[in-house]
Amino acid sequence: MxxxxxxxxxxxxxxxxxxxxxxxxxxxxxxxxATIVYAGIAGLLLLRLAxxxxxxxxxxxxxxxxxxxxxxxxxxxxxxxxxxxxxxxxTILVPPQFTSWDAKKRLAVLAHEGAHVxxxxxxxxxxxxxxxxxxxxxxxxxxxxxxxxxx
Length: 151
Known about the structure:
Order of helices and strands: HEEEEHHH
């Protein structure tokens, strides 16, 4: 017939096995630490974004407005601080050499930058990375095997 399996170590009846001694020191709450680090990094990145927006806004406001029949219906400004045409919000910033370019090149540049303004590309690019950083990153941290609570 079948035999009963024997324990690896002999067990004395009436003797209880003592639990392991408790660890010394305070327990570390890794979730709290991870949350504080995450919030700190997110705060620094938002601060960097805000500083960049303020500096660019000052750059656009300091640029001289340019009016003329070839300017389409856009807010075009000349700035000595840009090396090439750029768009900030609904403002097109061009370098001082813009006036010396031939008419075809100026019109092509304005059409290109005007398309960015019409499509609101500045605002899309401003907001596009935010959901990825706020929503996706914590999901990846959990999926990568962050510490789990005992059940």
